[in-house]
Structure formats: C-alpha cells, structure tokens
Amino acid sequence: MTVEERSSSELARIYELARSPFDDETLKGQGVALIFERPSLRTRASSSSAVHELGGYATFFSDEEIGLESRESAEDVGRTLAQMYAICAMRVRSHAVFNRMRIATGDQMSLVNLLSDVAHPTQAVADVLTIAERFTDGDVAKLAGLEVAYVGDATNVTRSLAVALLRLGVNVTVGAPEGYQLIAGGDEDPGAVTGGGTLRLTDSPTQALREADVVYTDAWVSMGFEGQTARRREDLAPFRVDESLMKFAKRDAVVLHCLPAHRGDEISNEVLDSEKSLVWRQVFHRRSAMLGVLRWIKEEEK
Prior knowledge:
alpha/beta, Rossmann fold, 2 domains, 39% helix, globular
C-alpha cells in the first residue's frame, strides 16, 4: 500500500525479482483483479502485461462498473473479490480504501496500490530501477550518495519516490513553492526515514537542481485539480524544467517524469525529448516493477 510499510529487505527483494529471469507459470491459472477509479495508460498496460507474462489473467473493473463507495462499500467490494481473486491491484481516489478492504477480508486477498491520493509505490519501484540502470548498472544497492532533485508540485509520486530513494541512501531535494511543498506525516512520510539519505526542502528551483544527478518533475494539474489550472500555472512557472533550469544541474544529469506530461507546463519539449530524458525507460520499468511486486507476493505466500 506504501513504500514506507515495506522493510528494506523486502524492497531489496522486490527490486531483485523485478530484474531477474522469471517463471511464466508463477500465476498460472490465477486471476488478478484490476480496479481503476481513475484513468490510466501506463499503469493498466504494465499491470495487465505483467500478470499475463507470469501466466495469470487480469480482469479489469472500471469505476462505472463497481461504483466504489457509491454503488457498493469498499468492504463489500473487497469481500466479493476475495472469493475469486488472491490479488487485487487498485488505482483509487482515497487511500483509506486499502486498509478498510484489508480489514474486511482479514488479509485474505493481497492488495497492491497502483496509485492513491497518498502514495504511488509501484511508480517509485520503477523509478528506482530506471535510475539504477543508468548509474549503477542496475545495482540498486550502489545508489547511495546520488543526488536527486524533484521540482514542482510535491505529490503522492514525490512522497513514494522520496521514501524509496532515502531508504537507499540517496539524497533527495524537493523544490516547490509555498502551498505545494511536502507536508510531514501521513502513511507515506519521507520525513520519517532515518539512517538513509538526506531530505532537503527548498522554495528555490535553482537551488534544488544544484549538483543534481537526476531531475524529476510531475504534472502541475493532477486529476481533480482542473479548476485550479490558471493559478497553478502561475504559481509553478519558475519550476518548469526547461533548458535554462537544467543548466543548474550536473552537466550529465538525466530527467524523469512519470507521465502523462503537460508539455510546456512542467516540462518543455526540448527537455522531455532530449537525450537526457529517461521517461521511456521509466515506462518500460513500470512493467518490471509489477513483475517484481507480483512475484514477491507469490513468494511471500509460500
């Protein structure tokens, strides 16, 4: 449900399983329920393809079909699916749904968070794999000391990314204006990570990028905030990742974006389409991340 709830050894095993050869019968004859309250391209594609590659089958349920919390309660949805599926992966509006379903089913069904208002752990796993592929030949354990800067609106993606990287000894700087910066507390709290990398918060985009090996950004106007588009564009304009801002990062710094990108807002075409951009490797590793998570779940069941 979050990166924070998993131990460092568990995360290390997920990273390892994401990169190692796999048995295409891991999920043979087993189904995985995919619930999507919010639209998706990469998350749905990576989840369904990973399930199929492991020998299972995926069943997709849209918001219109289930009506989570409108047509049926989270508890009743969980109890129903637990009779037919061992794993349920969900992209939901409210993070609280996960714990309610877990309690209602008595942990009978494994739950995977494909995005909530609090966290995006599978994206964080994919990002770690992408960064390691570029800087340490895929060895996640050797990332300590790397400098990662996130700029813009600090979202659920920021929180999960920061927790994952800090746990690996990576230093994370978040550059965001007042009202868009990370807030301490919650189920995915980078400020609660101890003994790893250093977390720095700044309201200066240029200070955030100084000495950065990796520059990360996300959409300024996420789903549900469309009514704030004009104000957000004004508030966040200095944090646009363009060629002029990238000059403050290291010369060989790379750029990440979890997509979809609003080109011209949080990132320019020149940067997104440049040789510095690793966004398509991030997309590739969304599948890797799901393979790792699903294999780890089945391994834990043994």
